[in-house]
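Backbone-to-sequence.
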């Protein structure tokens, strides 16, 4: 905005006129321009190109909306379109231009499946070419594309511009995430999303069946409450993400809204009853916490029943607040029981940390505190899946301990009975056979649990993309290696590798090709890190680390140079051309003078890496640690 310095002879009226003129002209100056779809685009996020207008009381026609002056439209200007809860009705518009010569077959995806009424208007050259009526108040099979989100297919001819208007009326959060897809690219991306959904629901289904069978076998009520909890959680998420509307009740438009509040309250209800039984929170040992949890459970049950009668718009905010209170209370229960040295509470507390994090992220996104994106929308699923697995492990651990205690008690009883009643030898043999069978069952469950724990440990320590160890595993191993090297006065070498110009390579060829590049570099590193005690890991992004225990500087330099040469020589095919990548390597070889020298060693190797980059990249630079504290390290 232009500012005018006040002058002696400038009239006050002229200033007011200029101020009002600028006030009305400002929205037009910052209004969103058209989104450009070129021939290389596969996906285009539209929120930053969106403008919106709040509709006054009473429906307004499309013609009236089109005639609005430009300053009435508010540019969104953010990475997400999220206006929170309320009774307002909003119009949104976005212009899309195709500067190319070919016709593009596109999808407009509205990625929030619980919007009630969505009217979509497509205008080309000022003429209405298509109108779609969407929303979860319409039967699912009336959608033009059968998908949990709202999809509008259309074609955009070359050297042309298309205007899209949307009228959104909903009782849920006013979130309108708009994405423009190439149709082929959408189906490719949908495979990954469907795989994610399938893995989540598959994990939950397996856990439901497993714990249900365990309950039928042992009769422990905690398993039954747990089954209720892990059955309600995926039903809530399926309702929220549109999966249930697509596969379970595609014609039940009224129930589709109500199911969200009903199942979320059932999650709180069964989560509370399970916590009380599993953590043994009774009026005798924790009177206040017991009364608080029971009160939350009762409120959740009443709200769940009210969800069958009371409209969604009146229940959703109380339900979210009740869910937040319930999750927080369960976490407090676990912390209190941990302080009481309850072994089961350790697993329980960790599980609720994951689930509470997911729930808080989801709630904050609904209140527009956090933006709506892939992380915030799927945080609840990821957190609940991890929590479900951890709680199942906790239940199995508790069952194992109880069975072990029962077995030991039975052994003692058998010994006493053998001394007192030698005449009952036949009866004792039968009892021993029963105990043997029980021991086998306990051992089988223990082996299953150990196998699952080993799998979980391996998954948690491995980078999914490259197959190398991840940063968390490296940090733990690095600390142990430094302590060992300090204790036995052994040399320890650390290599930091960074792919040269990787950001430019990633921006030029795309993230998928960038992922292939990271895998190629990881394979080259793996060829020369072969000793059992050596460790290669992905530290983050395009950075890798190699830890070489009991290796002096000369040996580490040879390994680093081999890795660098191998990567430089390895051709990397991208489309019809073969590229060669290079890496810069920083090296630090040292006999640690203290057990907690990990930070210094890593800092020296990092300085050597930056020195290698400053010298022109594609080289190895070794750092000589300073001999005097406070002195500068020497780079060679």
């Amino acid at each position: 905005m232009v500012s005018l310095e006040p002058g002696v002879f400038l009239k006050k009226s002229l200033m007011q006129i200029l101020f009002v003129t600028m006030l009305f002209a400002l929205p037009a100056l910052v209004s969103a321009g058209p989104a450009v779809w070129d021939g290389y685009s596969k996906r285009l996020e539209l929120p930053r190109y969106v403008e919106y207008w709040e509709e006054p009381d009473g429906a307004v026609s499309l013609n009236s909306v089109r005639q609005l002056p430009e300053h009435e439209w508010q540019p969104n200007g953010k990475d997400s379109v999220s206006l929170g809860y309320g009774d307002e009705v909003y119009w949104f518009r976005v212009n899309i231009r195709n500067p190319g010569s070919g016709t593009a077959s596109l999808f407009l995806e509205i990625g929030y499946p619980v919007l009630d009424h969505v009217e979509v208007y497509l205008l080309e050259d000022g003429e209405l070419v298509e109108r779609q009526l969407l929303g979860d108040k319409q039967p699912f099979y009336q959608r033009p594309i059968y998908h949990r989100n709202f999809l509008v297919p259309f074609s955009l001819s070359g050297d042309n511009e298309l205007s899209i208007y949307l009228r959104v009326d909903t009782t849920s959060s006013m979130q309108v995430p708009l994405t423009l897809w190439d149709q082929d690219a959408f189906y490719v991306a949908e495979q990954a999303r469907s795989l994610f959904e399938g893995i989540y629901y598959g994990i939950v289904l397996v856990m439901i069946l497993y714990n249900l069978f365990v309950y039928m076998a042992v009769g422990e009520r905690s398993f039954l409450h747990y089954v209720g909890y892990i059955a309600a959680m995926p039903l809530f998420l399926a309702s929220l993400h549109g999966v249930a509307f697509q596969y379970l009740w595609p014609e039940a438009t009224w129930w589709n809204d109500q199911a969200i509040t009903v199942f979320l309250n059932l999650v709180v209800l069964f989560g509370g009853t399970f916590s009380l039984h599993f953590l043994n929170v009774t009026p005798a040992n924790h009177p206040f916490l017991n009364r608080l949890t029971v009160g939350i459970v009762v409120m959740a049950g009443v709200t769940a029943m009210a969800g069958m009668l009371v409209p969604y718009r009146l229940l959703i905010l109380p339900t979210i607040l009740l869910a937040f209170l319930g999750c927080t209370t369960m976490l407090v229960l676990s912390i209190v029981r941990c302080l009481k040295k309850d072994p089961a509470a350790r697993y329980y507390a960790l599980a609720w940390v994951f689930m509470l994090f997911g729930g808080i992220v989801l709630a904050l996104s609904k209140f527009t505190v956090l933006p709506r994106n892939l992380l915030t929308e799927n945080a609840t699923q990821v957190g609940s899946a991890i929590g479900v697995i951890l709680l199942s492990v906790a239940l199995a651990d508790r069952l194992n301990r109880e069975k072990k205690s029962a077995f030991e008690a039975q052994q003692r009883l058998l010994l006493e009975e053998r001394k007192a009643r030698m005449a009952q030898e036949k009866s004792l043999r039968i009892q021993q056979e029963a105990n043997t069978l029980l021991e086998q069952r306990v051992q089988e469950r223990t082996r299953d649990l150990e196998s699952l724990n080993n799998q979980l440990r391996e998954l948690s320590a491995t980078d999914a993309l490259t197959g190398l160890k991840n940063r968390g595993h490296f940090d733990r191993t690095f600390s142990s290696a430094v302590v060992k090297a300090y204790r036995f006065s052994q040399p320890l070498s650390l290599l930091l590798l960074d792919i040269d110009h990787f950001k430019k390579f990633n921006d030029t060829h795309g993230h998928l090709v960038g992922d292939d590049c990271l895998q190629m570099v990881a394979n080259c590193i793996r060829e020369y890190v072969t000793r059992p005690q050596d460790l290669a890991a992905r530290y983050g992004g395009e950075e890798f680390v190699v830890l070489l225990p009991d290796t002096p500087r000369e040996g580490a330099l040879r390994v680093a140079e081999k890795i660098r040469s191998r990567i430089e020589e390895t051709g990397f095919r991208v489309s019809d051309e073969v590229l060669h990548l290079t890496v810069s390597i920083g090296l630090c070889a040292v006999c640690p003078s203290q057990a907690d020298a990990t930070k210094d060693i890593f800092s020296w190797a990092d300085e050597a890496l930056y020195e290698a980059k400053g010298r022109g990249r594609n080289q190895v630079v070794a750092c000589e640690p300073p001999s005097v504290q406070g002195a500068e390290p020497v780079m060679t």
